[in-house]
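Handout, section B. The chain below has 170 residues.
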Amino acid sequence: MRKSERSFSRGDGPKEVTGRMVLICFVAFFAVVAAVNAVMIRAAVSTFGGVETESAYQAGRAFERETAAVAAQDALHWQVAGKISADLAATRIEVVADDAGGTPLTGLRASARLVHPADRRADRTVALTEDAPGRFHGTDAPLSGQWALVIELSRDGARVFRSRNWVFLQ
């Protein structure tokens, strides 16, 4: 026999497929599927409990307050513009707030938050300082990706304006 004609069989020939072998393979397959499902269910339940609101009643009351605040904000007809820019050094936020006639608003405190759409732990609060009446600015660490920019203006501790806009930073 030449080298290229060698046979690599065990000598017994092919194994016969029996009913017992099919049953063992069938049970083993579903055991693996069940084990993977158990691991995935455990991971899903341990990372997110599914509860977004502790009390639906309190959430409903908060919704009513927010609706009233939006109506009061719309009645003011303020013109508030936010500008955000990011580079390798920092993320800069500028806010300009004017009343309905275009006069800069005075006596306000401004705050800005950058809210990550998927992870609350990544949210950033940016301290805004007033440069001139109705003109605010602040800087934070460099960021990239999609964020929600939430600008809030308050007077005497009460929020009088809020906007939320999606921004993409590169």
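Note. Residues 19-47 form the longest helix (29 residues). Compare this with the example in section A.
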